[in-house]
Design brief:
heterodimer, A: 234 residues, alpha/beta, 4-stranded antiparallel beta sheet, 27% strand, B: 806 residues, alpha+beta, elongated
Chain lengths: 234, 806
């Protein structure tokens, strides 16, 4: 699914040069559930941005589903991103002016899907994640857990190859956080490839593999008790 | 996707009510001004375009050159058009119009004073299109003593248009039979005639005499060219006519000069001030251009407002943009979304603007002497123009926010809190909201300051023109126009005497023209030391009381009623005439006028502004004619005597019962010359207030947003000891500095255009520093007041709440 080789990312401002990722290499197999941990500033979010095709690396190679993506322009990245990658963010990132249904529907609109098919897909996903009864509500009318559930719906409505979650439980209490983790586990069980950044060791261990980062590099990996052997996808 | 954009835009509009209101009000203010200005300018440009062959009709003006002096005159002789039509096949038809102005018109016992009376060729209604409600439209001026009248006149005298046909109206001792009734005033036209009499009604001998004179400028001549004829080529061909017809006449009559003709397109006449003795209702193309520019300025100010507020709030929208991009939106789709918002705001603003325009119509119509209604807005070309303006406004106003906001890098915004800060780094910061916001505020206030400055200068010039010492005494002079009726004219000396017997009357005088009116010009032959020369000079006929009544300073002597020779052989000239003729010592110099009166100069009056201050003081010759005069001037001893004036008018009515009374005060009459400037001042004032209002709306919105963003900073400053005054100064100084910078742009631009405008007046106040200072102070005061309320509220808020909020 994902193969990163010697990936580096440098941020340059007028005065400062920051090496966010330092010749990092990583492989993620199809259907894996990976969590990434590390202190603030270790490069987790940068890694996630590059994996999610939101940003380009400064050097190195990034093969996504067999396609080299390292030097694609924004238009090409968007093309790949919108059909293959679903995002779940710490701060939910729902659009306040759109209802639950409309927020979930948004990626499908940009894929120019027909109205009837969009309706079908959104309703299906809402039923699956048990949020259909809130379809006409707006984000500010929902609890944190419900908002994150809507965000997960939006992430999976495009049937992505990869789900990226950036501290999905960071703004939630333990109960709601547990609900979201259960959702991600359910998606994983259904075959989704999930990569999650988290500060919580407890949540990290819900994945199959935990990667530790420091100063832009992977310093260790461990397999958890949830690990299942996978065939490598080309 | 459309539905998603519009839904999102609509909901944002509802949620952010204050910002949306400021957006819409600003756009609505700009659009309402633009609508009114468009209606006015369009109306002025529509004059005479409705005539079926308008593009083939030209007015034949005259260009007279006499002894080096050039006069461009809107009128022509009676023979010009008919002779040209005979000689040049390019001329399909001609129409001559003799404007005889105001007449006392009788039907039985009914009598009214009618303005707009003229004689015209039978081709008049072939040239100029009117809708007829009674009578024969095709042949109504074919026969002598026929007359076509307007429906309004018909109803006044006869009760209905149909009743008028076949009846007669009488004026100047002649009766004319009504052959047709037309509707006047439906379309804009330069022709102000409500009563048109067949030209063939003129006295045969009179007609024959004037037809022999190329220099008797008494008629408007119109030519209709055949299809395909080019006016420029035809004008060149007139050289033959000058050579074969006019020049021999000039030589034969010993005129030292030349005459040529200038063809002026019919549709250009109304906006032209190029020719003298033109229609008084003519507009001025330059003022139209000024209004057009003001309208454009107001739209620019409204668009700037929109851009400014949108980009100021870009930080809040950046997150939404990032989410949409992550969800798969392309940049073009985001641009489209933001433009859709701009269109939604603009079209809602259009509705508000049209409602505002409807409310303002009565005031605007009074200002412009028009009769606009909502029907004018619904005309296809007006609606089309408004829609085009809206589309352009939406595109311009929405483009910068659309392109700027869609340039977000998703990775830069998705993880961020929405704190309104720019998402741009490096050199891109300079394209960002902060820098651009400042530039836009400066531009808005530069336009506002320029408009305030212009208003002050126009007001000052108007005040100057009304109050300038004109070199004569115009206060408290009552003017009574004397009817041309020979009976009244003959009894004028008796009437004057009776008024002089009244205890309250100080002086009574008479004159063919009064200051402030249009003065005629006459051809003079002037003696010099070694030769004689021909000159065209202004002239007026006066009596011996005129100069003392006006308080004119005179060298030499006045006309003497006991000196019979004065009536035939004496001239009094003004200093400008003496200078023009090169006479250092004019008294005794010989001259002869075009009426055959030869005499010598007996006196020189110091120059006085007898005409509008638009024009320099021109040479003037006064001749003595105590009888057969057009105006009686009466001055009472006490200026407070309104009862005196009323009583004088009652006496006049008893002495002249058969003519309607028209009287006015001389100073009011002179101020009439400045009506256009007065209207321009009022229009400028209204639009200046509007521009300042829009700018302040924008400033309010920006200040409101800026204060909101700096809540934490204000809280910290207060905790550290800042007073409310410190905070207010801190919050307002940025905006005040920008307004001060605006002056650097406004002053030079305004100086350039105002200087040129003032140069169009022969007499004006020089442009001083005062108006510049005042305009800046006003702008500064308004800006300070706008942001002060917000900064006061922020400065007095509890700092703990601010910090807890963060």
């Amino acid at each position: 699914m994902i193969k990163i080789s010697e990936l580096s990312k440098v941020y340059r401002t007028e005065d400062v040069e920051t090496l966010a990722l330092n010749a990092l290499s990583l492989e993620v197999k199809k259907g894996e559930f990976i969590s990434v941990m590390g202190p603030s500033g270790c490069g987790k979010s940068t890694l996630l941005n590059i994996l999610g095709l939101l940003d380009n690396p400064s050097a190195g190679s990034y093969l996504f589903a067999g396609e080299e993506t390292a030097q694609l322009n924004e238009k090409e990245r968007a093309r790949l991103r919108k059909s293959a990658i679903g995002f779940v963010f710490q701060s939910f990132n729902l659009i306040d002016e759109l209802s639950v249904f409309e927020n979930i529907e948004l990626p499908l609109i940009y894929q120019k899907m027909s109205t009837s098919e969009r309706k079908h897909r959104v309703e299906e996903v809402m039923q699956r994640l048990n949020i259909a009864h809130r379809a006409k509500h707006f984000p500010q009318q929902l609890s944190g857990g419900q908002q994150q559930r809507v965000a997960v719906c939006r992430a999976i409505v495009i049937e992505p190859k990869l789900i990226l979650a950036d501290e999905p439980t960071g703004n939630l209490d333990s109960k709601n956080g547990e609900e979201v983790m259960a959702l991600l586990e359910q998606l994983h069980d259904e075959g989704a490839t999930v990569l999650m950044v988290t500060h919580s060791p407890e949540h990290a261990l819900r994945a199959e593999r935990v990667i530790h980062m420091l100063d832009g590099q992977v310093i260790s990996e461990e397999f958890t008790s949830n690990y299942r052997s996978k065939e490598m996808e080309a | 996707m459309w539905k998603n954009y519009l839904l999102s835009s609509w909901r944002i509009l509802i949620r952010q009510r204050l910002v949306s209101l400021i957006h819409i009000l600003g756009l609505a203010a700009g659009l309402s001004a633009a609508t009114l200005i468009y209606l006015y300018v369009n109306s002025e440009l529509q004059y005479d375009i409705h005539h079926p062959d308008a593009e083939r009709i030209y007015r034949l003006n005259s260009v007279l050159i006499l002894d080096g002096q050039t006069d461009r005159v809107a009128m022509n002789s009676l023979r010009a058009a008919s002779e040209l039509a005979d000689q040049y096949p390019e001329i399909e038809a001609f129409c001559r119009i003799i404007d005889i102005g105001k007449q006392s018109v009788w039907y039985g016992e009914k009598m009214f004073s009618e303005d707009g009376v003229s004689f015209a060729d039978s081709t008049y209604f072939n040239f100029f299109s009117y809708r007829f409600v009674a009578g024969d439209s095709k042949h109504c001026l074919d026969q002598p003593m026929q007359m076509a009248i307007s429906k309004e006149v018909a109803i006044k005298y006869f009760g209905s248009a149909e009743e008028a046909i076949g009846k007669s109206l009488k004026f100047a001792r002649k009766s004319y039979q009504i052959s047709a009734v037309f509707i006047d005033g439906e379309k804009e036209t330069q022709l102000p005639y409500s009563m048109i009499i067949s030209l063939s009604s003129l006295d045969r001998r009179f007609y024959a005499s004037v037809m022999g004179d190329y220099f008797r400028m008494m008629a408007f001549n119109y030519l209709k060219l055949i299809p395909g004829a080019q006016a420029g080529i035809l004008s060149k061909k007139f050289e033959n006519f000058y050579t074969n017809s006019i020049n021999p006449w000039i030589e034969q009559n010993e005129v030292n000069g030349s005459m040529t003709y200038a063809l002026q397109p019919l549709m250009d006449v109304h906006l032209s001030n190029e020719f003298s003795y033109d229609f008084p209702g003519n507009s001025n193309r330059r003022y139209l251009q000024i209004f057009g520019i003001v309208g454009l300025f107001l739209l620019v100010v409204a668009a700037i407002n929109y851009m400014n507020l949108s980009t100021a709030r870009s930080g809040k929208r950046a997150k939404e943009v990032g989410i949409r991009m992550v969800a798969g939106a392309k940049r073009s789709q985001l641009i489209f979304q933001f433009l859709s918002e701009a269109f939604l705001h603009t079209f809602i603003a259009l509705i508000f603007a049209l409602a505002t325009v409807e409310i303002l119509f009565p005031y605007f119509n009074a200002l412009t002497d028009k009769h606009f209604t909502h029907g004018d807005i619904l005309q296809p070309n007006t609606l089309g123009a408004l829609l085009l303006i809206c589309v352009l406004l939406a595109l311009i106003a929405g483009s910068y926010p659309a392109f700027f906001l869609s340039a977000v890098e998703p990775s830069e915004v998705i993880g961020m809190k929405s704190n309104g800060k720019s998402h741009l780094q490096g050199w891109k910061r300079y394209l960002g909201p902060v820098a651009l916001r400042r530039v836009l505020v400066v531009m808005q206030f530069a336009i506002s300051i320029a408009l305030i400055l212009s208003t002050i200068v126009v007001m000052s010039q108007l005040d100057f023109m009304k109050n300038k010492d004109l070199g004569f005494d115009k206060e408290g002079v009552l003017v009574i126009p004397v009817p041309g009726d020979s009976v009244v004219q003959a009894s004028l000396p008796k009437i004057k005497n009776e008024f002089l017997q009244r205890a309250e009357v100080d002086q009574v005088a008479s004159a063919s023209r009064v200051p402030g009116g249009i003065f005629g010009k006459l051809y003079f032959i002037v003696d010099h030391a070694t030769n004689r020369s021909n000159k065209i000079l202004g002239f007026m006929f006066i009596d011996d009381a005129f100069i003392p009544m006006m308080g004119l300073k005179l060298d030499g002597r006045n006309f003497d009623p006991n000196n019979a020779a004065d009536a035939g052989t004496s001239f009094i000239i003004n200093q400008a005439c003496a200078d023009f003729l090169g006479w250092e010592d004019p008294i005794g110099k010989e001259m002869e006028n075009g009426l055959g009166i030869r005499g010598h100069v007996i006196g020189v009056v110091q120059d006085f502004n007898y005409a509008s201050l638009h024009a320099p003081i021109e040479p003037m010759v006064m001749m003595y004619q105590p009888k057969n005069t057009s105006n009686l001037l009466i001055k009472v001893k006490s200026q407070d005597g309104f009862d005196s004036y009323a009583s004088i008018l009652d006496q006049w009515k008893s002495m002249v019962p058969n003519h309607p009374l028209e009287a006015y005060f001389l100073d009011d009459f002179m101020n009439r010359n400045y009506i256009k400037e007065g209207k321009m001042l009022r229009v400028f004032s209204y639009f200046t207030i509007l521009a300042v209002f829009i700018s302040c709306l924008g400033l309010f919105g920006l200040a409101s947003f800026s204060t909101e963003l700096r809540t934490k900073e204000i809280g910290i400053r207060k905790v550290l000891g800042a007073s409310a005054g410190n905070i207010m100064l801190h919050l307002t100084k940025e905006f005040i500095f920008l307004v001060l910078i605006s002056n650097l742009i406004a002053w030079p631009a305004a100086w350039y255009f105002l200087q040129r405008w003032l140069e169009s007046f022969a007499f004006s106040n020089p442009l001083s520093f005062g108006p510049f200072l005042w305009s800046s102070l006003i702008a500064l005061l308004v800006a300070t007041l706008t942001v002060m309320g917000l900064s006061l509220k922020a400065a007095t808020a509890n700092p703990v709440r601010a910090l807890r909020y963060e």
